[in-house]
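Progress narrative, Year 2. Work on C-type lectin domain-containing protein from Caenorhabditis briggsae advanced from sequence curation to structure prediction during this period.
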Amino acid sequence: MISQLILVSLMISSAVADCQYPDRLIDGLCFTFVDIPKTFWEADEWCSYKAPNAWSYLALEENDIHAIWLAKTAELMFTSNYFWIGVYRPTANDNFRTILNRYLTYEHFGQINPSMNYAAGRTSDGKWVTLPQEQKLPFICSYKPTVEALKRRLP
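Result:
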């Protein structure tokens, strides 16, 4: 019994995470780069309803690896110096939260304009800045990868 549990645990840990082509997998999330300038809410709608992956949303950056990697990739793929990410606050008196309506557990702000409530990544260094939601920018969507667990190793 214990040997079977160990075997199952090894099979699960060796599962392959997959992103749809040409999306990129980085540190546990898949990212879709969209070089079509849209407002914050238009970009969110595109990620939710028009992205190739059905469970996509405006990009969530969960750590410095995501922030820096996305910025450097966006710098190569976009002509804009900024791109929308999934961070906003409903009003200037609220805390920032993710597009999934969760309070931030990670933040990478370089500049917060008190009158602006929508976060964009800066391609030069990955820092977040606040911009007006009606500004049209390219954007990045993110989603959890599919896991092909156990398929290849079961007898």
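Helices lie at 2-13, 40-49, 64-77. The chain is about 25% helix and 30% strand.
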